Amino acid sequence: MIDTHAHLQDEMIKDYKKTITDANDAGVSKIVCASSNLENSKRAVDIANEIACVYATVGIHPEDANSYNSDSIMQLKQLAKNKKVVAIGEIGLDYYHEFASRDLQKEVFIKQIELANDLKLPVVLHTRDASGDMIEILRKYKNKLSCGVCIHCFNMSLEILKEILNYGFYISIGGIVTFSNAKNVIEIVKNCDINRLMLETDTPYLSPVPLRGTINEPKNVVFSAKRIAEILNISLNEIDEITTKNANRFFNFNR
Ligand code: NI
After folding, report:
1. What pLDDT, on the 0 to 100 scale, is given for residue 255?
2. Residue 151 C-alpha to ligand 1 middle, in angstroms?
3. Stretch 209-236: mean pLDDT
4. Per the structure, how many domains does the chain have?
5. Rg (alpha carbons) of the chain, rounded to whole number
6. Is omega for the bond preceding 90 within 30 degrees of 0, making it cis?
7. CATH code at 42?
8. Dihedral, CA of residue 35, residue 30, residue 157 and residue 208, to nearest 10
9. Distance 230 CA to ligand 1 centre (A)
10. Which residues surround ligand 1, an ion (CB under 5 A)?
11. Hey, which bits of 77-142 come out as E strands?
12. What is the pLDDT of residues 95-150, one digit of tens each?
């Protein structure tokens, strides 16, 4: 199994080496370490350089948009030269927290879409309470997103799901699918093309049932995988095989 979205560099993860070994022992073969600002992008690249099964994304999250300055794109570009950087992310819009103004979030998001296009890298998207502006930007910039888009923790409408699948985009699903109030995410799983679905944990957040309230880890990806297998009425092995194939295709790990 591949955990396509884990913040291994988060301070809540006290011993990342043990966390990674525990994941390997539980059958997780690769982990994509997701970033949210320049500092933890550097940290993600360091961990990926150190540990073979870890890959990194680099990028500035909308919650960190205030940290963006005229140097940021150059610095991200420098980091992305590393072979183990497999995507720009997580980038996008967050109108739930709105730590930065909507205009600034959009500017920082679009600048990084252009960066991904220059570098021929896919992007990992974060979006919360911003569906309208998000889909508008994706429509407008889809030609600059031809190396791939994965919307992580996808929780938008079925109409938007249909539209982004038409664009060739992917989604990743994590612990939320195990929650008892996960009606929308369950419908999303049922309506998604299985060849565009990937697994994630969003470590250290969003621990799945029955581990809610604990610090999440990549080894817990199996709980979401089991729940998805149950929803789709197929075996856990099939989910493992298909989502692993999808992640290998999307991230092109051996670039
Ligand atoms: Ni995340």
Report:
1. 78
2. 11
3. 97
4. 1
5. 17
6. yes
7. 3.20.20.140
8. -90
9. 25
10. 34, 202
11. 85-94, 123-128
12. 999 999 999 999 999 999 999 999 999 999 999 999 999 999 999 999 999 999 99
* Span from the CA of 22 to the centroid of ligand 1 (angstroms): 20
- Section 7-20 average pLDDT: 98
Report the alpha-carbon angle 220-168-253, nearest 5: 50
CA dihedral 143, 144, 148, 154 (to 10 degrees): -90
Query: What pLDDT sits at residue 254?
Result: 87
10 Å Cβ neighbour count for 144? 15
From ligand 1's centre to the CA of 237, what distance in Å? 26
Convert the pLDDT of each residue in 53-112 to its tens digit: 999 999 999 999 999 999 999 999 999 999 999 999 999 999 999 999 999 999 999 999
Angle, nearest 10°, between helix axes 72-80 and 102-119? 40
Sign of the Cα torsion 141, 127, 154, 198 reads: positive
Q: Can the peptide bond before residue 122 be classed as cis, meaning omega within 30 degrees of 0?
A: no
Report the distance separating Cα 197 and Cα 172, nearest Å: 6
Q: pLDDT category, 172, cuts 50, 70, 90?
A: very high
Distance (angstroms) between ligand 1 centre and the Cα of 31 equals: 13
Token pair for residue 150?
């994965």
Mean pLDDT of the chain: 97
List the domain range (segments joined by +) for residue 247.
2-251
- Whole-number pLDDT of residue 142: 96
Tokens, residue 185: 């995410």
| Nearest partner of 205 among 91, 123, 113, 126, judged by Cα | 126
Direct distance between the N- and C-terminal alpha carbons of the chain, in angstroms, rounded to an integer: 20
